[in-house]
Design brief:
3 helices, alpha+beta, 112 residues, Alpha-Beta Plaits, 18% helix, three-stranded antiparallel beta sheet, two-stranded antiparallel ribbon
Length: 112
């Protein structure tokens, strides 16, 4: 036991200062997808390729809606790959903790 204490004092602290100092994601990290409403054409290609099916598109009374739920998103990046209009971008964001599921849904709307 004393040997472990000596070794620990000799090597020092090896952990990061997270969450006080946020970690920076490495280059090429696939984080939270972001929907850009001004570029979206509501073509539905992202809906077709989403493996967990968390992207939905709907049309109701003069309005189109595209919703993305981060609750089941696996951050695979397929939605970004197929989007012809660059309306989906993967960010470096990975901290998505929330107390309510409703906070983990992004919705964009367009009037017809």
């Amino acid at each position: 036991m004393l040997d472990i204490l000596k070794k620990t004092l000799k090597t020092g602290c090896q952990t990061t200062k997270y969450p006080d100092v946020p970690d920076v994601a490495p280059e090429g990290f696939r984080g939270m997808p972001q929907l850009l409403s001004d570029k979206c054409t509501f073509c539905g290609e992202c809906v077709k390729v989403c493996p967990p099916g968390v992207i939905t598109i709907a049309e109701k009374s003069h309005e189109k809606t595209l919703a993305l739920s981060y609750c089941g998103c696996i951050f695979c990046g397929r939605c970004e790959e197929v989007c012809q209009s660059d309306a989906v971008k993967l960010t470096q964001e990975y901290e998505l903790a929330s107390l309510a599921k409703e906070d983990l849904i992004t919705i964009i709307r367009r009037k017809l």
